[in-house]
Design goal:
This protein has 260 residues and is an alpha/beta fold. It is 42% helix and 17% strand. The chain contains 9 helices and 8 strands.
Length: 260
């Protein structure tokens, strides 16, 4: 495992000669969002960026909005010598993947969206702006407590406690300024041109996801030609943490189906 650095953005690179798989985290996450899946992905060269302003990557406010985040990922892949890759993302990271696959379809081998979202509705945009202000004014403690308790639906017991603790820790580690910037980027985001997405696409939805409900995934399935949908029972928004084995199984099965 090596770190690639480009303009303050850090990308973990597993190395290897297999096909490139890019894993893009969502709002409040970092490269660790996909750590529970890594043992199943040994046949790929896995690249896990910390988006600018998240994890170990410095904020790059000159790149505006969600398109700016997508551009930063595209530059990192180019610097790593990756011309074509499988794209997988969680939540906001999945929206970034949608834009990458639509804007440069020749570079996308496949698309996997965990907790897939569309452009935010007006009410969600206002809530994201308010959350950005809370982060800037008060820090991350209140936000971390709220998201870890409301967005994780894993069963009670040790599995649920660990999932909620992981999500809370992920939020607590965020730089408040970077998190607020991501909230505003998502609040102003537009939908990708779904008709331009030409690669095989898998949507993975949590049955009890309050952020990206199954209905949203079904809408996306209707917009992306040939897309498949898998619903994980009893799971909330952070499926790679709540149900990593099933998440990895769905991802690897999808990759196996589209590899040359």
């Amino acid at each position: 495992m090596a770190d690639l650095r480009l303009g303050g953005m850090v990308t973990e690179d597993s190395g290897g000669s297999g096909p490139a798989l890019v894993l893009i985290h969502g709002l409040g996450g970092d490269s660790n969002t996909f750590s529970p899946l890594m043992e199943w992905l040994g046949g790929c060269r896995v690249l896990r960026p910390d988006l600018p302003g998240a994890g170990r990557s410095g904020l790059r406010p000159g790149r505006a909005g969600l398109k700016g985040l997508a551009s930063a990922v595209r530059d990192a892949l180019r610097a790593a010598g990756v011309e074509r890759a499988h794209l997988a993302g969680h939540s906001m990271g999945g929206l970034i993947c949608q834009h990458l696959a639509a804007d440069t379809p020749e570079s996308a081998l496949s698309l996997t969206l965990f907790g897939p979202i569309l452009e935010p509705a007006p009410g969600a945009r206002r809530a994201l702006e308010e959350r950005a202000e809370t982060a800037r004014r008060d820090g991350m403690a209140e936000i971390a407590e709220s998201i870890s308790s409301e967005n994780v639906a894993a069963a009670s017991g040790d599995a649920g406690r660990l999932a909620r603790a992981f999500v809370r820790a992920s939020l607590m580690r965020q730089d408040p300024t970077g998190y607020a910037w991501h909230c505003r980027a998502l609040a102003s985001a537009s939908a990708a041109d779904h008709a331009a997405i030409a690669c095989p696409t898998l949507l993975i939805a949590g049955e009890r996801d309050p952020v990206a409900p199954v209905a949203t995934a079904e809408t996306l399935k209707g917009r992306i030609g040939g897309a498949e949908l898998e619903i994980l029972p009893g799971i909330g928004h952070w499926m790679t943490i709540e149900m990593p084995g099933r998440s990895a199984e769905a991802l690897t099965r999808h990759l196996d189906g589209v590899r040359p």
